[in-house]
């Protein structure tokens, strides 16, 4: 079970690195526009905010990878909870699909960590 938990955490971390790239570097490019369903005008108006969001997603990824490197369940649980809460907030305020992209994987990872402890 610890292997499954670690694989889940690594995948969630990689997902957040991908979100970082989308929000910080591809926000106003065709890939970012498609991913977030925006017009070029909307992207231009929100580019600075998106970069900030991307940076936060990078911190989430870094925390998850840090927990893996330390092999410390407390760090893993803390950052999975951070991802879960961020996903709940995003689903409530921005897009319901964030619930499935961010929150559900974090909940699965959290369950796996707790079951393997």
Could you characterize the architecture of this molecule?
The protein has 5 helices and no strands. The chain has helices spanning 2-24, 30-36, 40-70, 73-93, 97-116. α3 (40-70) runs antiparallel to α4 (73-93). It is elongated, with a radius of gyration of 15 Å. The mean pLDDT is 96.
What key phrases describe this protein's structure?
117 residues; mainly alpha; 5 helices; 87% helix; elongated
Provide a brief overview of the structure.
Helix content is 87%, strand content 0%. It contains five helices and no strands.
Tally the structural domains.
1
Give the number of DSSP strands: 0
Q: What general form does the structure show?
A: elongated
H-E order: HHHHH
Unreliable spans:
none
Q: Provide the β-strand percentage band.
A: under 5%
Number of helices: 5
Major sheet characteristics: none
Mean pLDDT: 96
The Cα radius of gyration reads: 15 Å
Global structural class: mainly alpha
Helix content: over 70%
Distance between the termini: 9 Å
Compile the SSE list and pairings:
Blueprint (H helix, E strand, L loop, with lengths): L1 H23 L5 H7 L3 H31 L2 H21 L3 H20 L1
Helix pairs in contact: 1-3, 1-5, 3-4, 4-5
């Amino acid at each position: 079970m610890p292997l499954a938990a670690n694989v889940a955490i690594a995948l969630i971390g990689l997902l957040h690195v991908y979100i970082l790239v989308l929000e910080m570097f591809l926000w106003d490019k065709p890939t970012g526009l498609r991913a977030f369903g925006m017009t070029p005008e909307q992207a231009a108006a929100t580019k600075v905010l998106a970069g900030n969001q991307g940076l936060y997603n990078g911190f989430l990824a870094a925390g998850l990878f840090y927990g893996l490197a330390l092999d410390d369940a407390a760090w893993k649980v803390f950052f999975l909870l951070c991802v879960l809460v961020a996903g709940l907030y995003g689903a409530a305020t921005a897009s319901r699909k964030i619930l499935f992209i961010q929150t559900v994987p974090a909940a699965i990872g959290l369950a796996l960590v707790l079951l393997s402890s």
